[in-house]
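Protein of interest.
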Amino acid sequence: MGRLGEIGQAYGPISTLLSAIALCVAVLVQRRQLRQERVVMARELHADVLRTAMEEPAYGQCWGPRVTPEHVDERLFYYSSSILTAWFHAWECGDLTDEAVRSYARSMADSEIPRMYWIAYGGWRLSAARGPELRFLRMVDGEFRAAMAGGPPSRRAEPIPGGERLRSPRGRVARRRDSSVRAYSVRFAERRYARNPRH
């Protein structure tokens, strides 16, 4: 019994240390999960705010001055921003390659409305971005710059027939778009956590 007691005393501090380490790891993992949940919630809130402005144009006044020239419906800029956000989530999840991002941005830049949006807000987005988002936006910016250097876009801004306002993107298409953005956000959080669970 004396020998067993000595062994127990020797391993007691080690067992305590291992338990403390396990507890610290569990706390760090939980903090990581909570932070990623907050990131997803913030992105969903951002999407909801944009969707409200798209569905009810009067709410655009709450953003401050117009984000587009008088002859351009503001929702076209909101939607251009949403497209880039969805692509960014897909790229960060690994669903889009760098070449795919450049190809999509190249096609987008061949339309006048996205060019107007990027000229007005591309620089601001680049200055505010950090890390992966900055790298993504630099790829987009490169394609827009190349497209604008190459001449006018093939698709000009199109007037709304009969002077009518744009219809809000409701129904099945809107639900599919919204669910895709949410899915990209969730998958990004899950994959990023899986790659680096200690941060």
User: Anything to note?
Assistant: Residues 168-178, 184-199 have pLDDT under 50 and may be disordered. The two ends are 46 Å apart (CA to CA).
